[in-house]
Amino acid sequence: MLKFTVRRLIQLVPILIGLSILVFVWIRALPGDPIQALLGERATPEAVARARQLYGFDRPLWQQYLSYLHSVVQFDFGQSVVSRRLVTTEIRERFPATIELTGAAMIFAVGLGIPLGFAAAKRYQGLVDQLSVAGSLLGVAVPVFFLGLILKYIFAVKLHWLPTVGRSDATSTAPHPTGFYVLDALITNDRVALVDALRHLVLPAIALGTIPLAIIARITRAAVLDVVNEDYVRTARAKGMSPAVVDRRHVLKNAMLPVITIIGLQTGLLLSGAILTETVFSWGGMGAWLYQAISFRDYPVLQAGILFLAVVFVVVNLLVDVTYALLDPRIRVR
Amino acid sequence: MSLAEAEKELGVEAEAFVGRWTDVRQRLLRNPSAVVGLVLIALFVLVGVFAPLLAPYDPRDGDLSIIRPGLYPGPSADHLLGVDQLGRDVLSRIIYGARSSLVIGLVALGFGAAVGLALGALAGAFGGWVDGALMRLVDMMLAIPGLLIAIGVAAAIGRSLTAVMIAIGVVNVPVFARLLRGSMLAQRESDYVLAARALGVKRGRIVLGHIVPNSIAPVIVAATLALATAIIDAAGLAFLGLGSADPGVPEWGRMLAETQSLLQNAPHAAIFPGLAIVVSCLGFYLLGEGLREAIDPKFRR
Predict the structure, then answer these.
(1) Are B136 and A31 in contact (CB < 8 Å)?
(2) Is the dihedral of CA A24, A27, A29, A32 positive or negative?
(3) What is the pLDDT of residues B18-27, one digit of tens each?
(4) What is the pTM of this model?
(5) B63-96: pLDDT as tens digits
(6) Hey, is B47 helix, strand or coil?
(7) Which residue of A145, A227, A321 is the best one to mutate when testing the B interface, meaning the one whose CB has the most B CBs within 10 A?
């Protein structure tokens, strides 16, 4: 198992190096001179030349790449052009918000998707099955930002059940030691803050989690349908095992393998969906931050944000692979 | 005994021996959800193509006299789906928006599929280090969530519809490359390729005449599904402000972005463009799923 994990970690290296090259090339391809962007349009030619030397833009490209790599490895992404603050500081402030949102969306998707897919497969071609098939098709066809708007319109604007934007009430003075508002409220044992944080979390999480929910439900259904006809399931039934135990120990456990792969792939969808969802709900995470960066051409933020999210995606998929190998010993020897 | 006599003798209907694509078409037309998908797509394409004939108003011209701040008339006899924040007819903008979506989707798909298929075919045909190098590149691109790539590419090119098409096309490249390569590798080991090689058929002819046509089925399915994704991604980019630089250009995503702050007063201006996205995507998903089932018996359930 350890050998497998180490091997997967080593495979990660070329992907990460490739990613850094892609992002580096991308920065070069951006319109406009980065120095000009940094100093503003009224910079004197001398100042531009000095800055060019200072930032190493006069050196050969491969040297520039190496120094770029050097600073990235040290988590030095420079300053935001808009806020003039360190990009790393902003990532540290905003990342918990995105993790909280995607985590909640994932819990919603997995917590509802697996039982739904399982129920659909058990009553194959029944009402639940047909509804879930139709629902999962509709689920992938609805763009996350449109679903967000609809939810906001119904539950916040019309019914006033839930807040429309933000992560907490504007008047809230609750402290945030970790940046995860739900966790913060639990740590400080603040019931009011907890309810407030959860109320703000519900709509964005449902909006973001619906597409993964549809996909997870579908894959679970297909996987369970595959497994229920296996010989070992029939054997388990034949030897008089109770149906519930057969479902739990034989059917569900074996059907989970493809589902776990899909859950890993969905994190990519969640991370990019978060950009749109956060925009709709003014959720102060990485997504809303990238959105601002797009509108203000804040390239240091854009490149750091994209690189960071891509690395998170790669690492999550590594974790999924390791989980997979834990569950299925056959993978380990490949 | 002739073949016909043999069929009669065995009780096999002559219809059973139809070509592969005839079979696919028949299966497709027997699948109600695929037919619904076809109808939705036909509707979407017709609306896009004949937009100037169908739209009751100019999508760019707003009638400022009929709106007040906070008061944007909803559906009425004059404006079937109401007007937006600039007094422009929502229905006309949705109709022209179909045209934008159609063009973006097709060009992006064409670009992505052409580059991706070329890379995939190269990798699948040559194998060895060509395959290794190309597939590592593809791995890298697949390691970044699609919308992030699209945002990066669109931001690098600048705000325009061309940028959106290229951005979404780039997202599609690794998908098609991987798909065609996998499909071709499977075909390469098959008996008919071995037979062709034994007959002395040249490598290029085996690839183009035998392997590619037999590997193309999953690509068609993926292309249909990719169109749905392209429409959603294009709307997403426009929603984030990475669409056309011309604010008059009707795009569904942009319509949603512009009217999201008006939900309280003018929900129609946001909801109808959103529904247009859902309906057109649903069409491509339904057809794509139907095609998948019709082409690959494994998925028939």
Answers:
(1) no
(2) negative
(3) 666 777 788 8
(4) 0.81
(5) 777 776 767 777 777 777 777 777 788 888 888 8
(6) helix
(7) A145
